[in-house]
Amino acid sequence: MRRTPALVATLVAVAFVAGTASTTTAAPRDLEATLANALRAPGIDPRNAAAIAVDLRTGQTVYSSNPGRSLLPASAEKLPVSFAALRVLGPRHRFRTEVVGAGARSGSVWRGNLWLVGFGDPTLDRADLNRLARKFAATGIRNIAGRVFGDDTHFDRRRDGLGWKSSYLGIESRPIAALSVAGVRLTGVHGSAVAAARAYVEALERRGISVSGRSGSRPAPPAALSIVFDLSVPLSTIVRQLNGESVNFAAEMVLKELGSTAAPRGSSAAGARVVRSALRAAGVPLAGVRIADGSGLSRFDRLTVHALSAILRVGAADPAIRDAFMASLAVAGISGTLERRLDVRPTRGQVIAKTGTTSRASALAGFVRRRYVFAILQNGSPVPYWTAREAQDRFVTALARS
After folding, report:
1. For 144-177, how does the pLDDT look when each residue is reduced to its tens digit (9 = 90+)?
2. What is the extent of the structural domain holding 42?
3. Which of 85, 153, 272, 284 is most deeply buried (CB count within 10 A of its CB)?
4. What is this structure's pTM?
């Protein structure tokens, strides 16, 4: 049987949980010095960097430098968000997109308006709209004597993240709206809902269903009738986008969905409070931790390597989320953001981790075999990208060889 890269990555991640056939020797006495030397790099100020490595078999910290230093995390920010999402929403959680109507049916005609209502699906695309159109066509309705509106009021109206550069919106992430269809052209940062409505009308028309009115954006009335709906892939699959592929938009949508569990409308601020609550309940040290967005693009985000290593350890130990959490990480030399990195012995397939890169921060946090959990954060103005990454790779390679 031919195994796809995604399947291979999942099998490798599961091996970190279930065990592997390989054996490891005891860490050498000079491992701490080796790790310290690995992190020395031109352009990296040790005062603006931190690292930790813990032996999972003994619980012993084999290396620690500035473990409580509060630093910009870049995309390592997605680790606490995905951890909290799996804990709060559950690995089987699916995002809903629904078509509702206000009016009445007369034969094959719907007299009234329809609404495409979004509930934060970060994976919504034209294929989903086509599926919703097919389901609607199955009702026998062939003409809509009214308009089709998009409803994105499940989330707040903020479309970027607190502390983002203005250039990030549209480049690093499309506008963060509860109803957003991938690949659909927008006419402005608040145009996601009307663009989705237009795309749905196009899908209906391809099914032979005519719509008399113009598409628009408007909240659905509370008494609107549910007609058809679509569900996303499970959250266990979506978190692979967050951690393995480091998709910023997905991370922001998941954070707002977390916020919707504690507030009338999902927001990044409400989601951040839910993340902190989940971390606190799991015993993760919160000193120096600040959650401003879901992706790590915000200049206000802060994490510590102490917190990151704790999140990784708790996520790997929790049977309710363990498989999904571990399988979400990129695998060295095989998948995600590590597909072309650490692609040599002894690290290929032996390191699973979350990467992170912005102009001011570089990060790597994860596991080396079933032996070590590690986290590295490096900050600078700017941080030298290649130098930082090479230091991180030397660090995990030294762990893999021990």
Report:
1. 999 999 999 999 999 999 999 999 999 999 999 9
2. 5-92+237-401
3. 85
4. 0.93
